[in-house]
Amino acid sequence: MTHLLLLWVLSCSGCSDGDRDSGTQVTDTAWTTTVSDTEVQTDTGACAQTMVCDEEVINIYETEDFARLADCGNVTGYLVVQVTEPTPVPDLPCLTDVGEGLTLIGATGHNGLEGFSSLQTVGYELAIIEAEALERLDGFESLVSTGSSGLNIRMNPALVEIGPFPSLVKPGHVLITQNPLLERVVGLADPESVVALNSLAIDYNDSLTDLSGLSNVDEIGGLNVGGLLISSNPALVTLDGLHHVERVNWLDITSNDSLVDLGGLSALSEVGQVQIIDNPLLTDLLGLQNLVQVDNTLAIGLNESLLTLDGLDKVDYVRGDLILQENPELLHVDGLASLVEVRGDVEVLENKSLVDLDGLSSLGTIAGGLHVLGNQSLLELGGLSSLHTLDGWVEVSQNAALVSLQGLAGVVGTKATVRVEENASLTSLEGLHYIDVVDGDVWVSDNPVLQSLDGLRSLDQVNATIRIRGNLALEDIDALGGLVLVDGDLEIVDNPLLCDSEVRALLGGVAVGGSLVIDNGGPCE
Question: Whole-angstrom Cα distance, residue 360 to residue 373?
Answer without folding.
Answer: 16
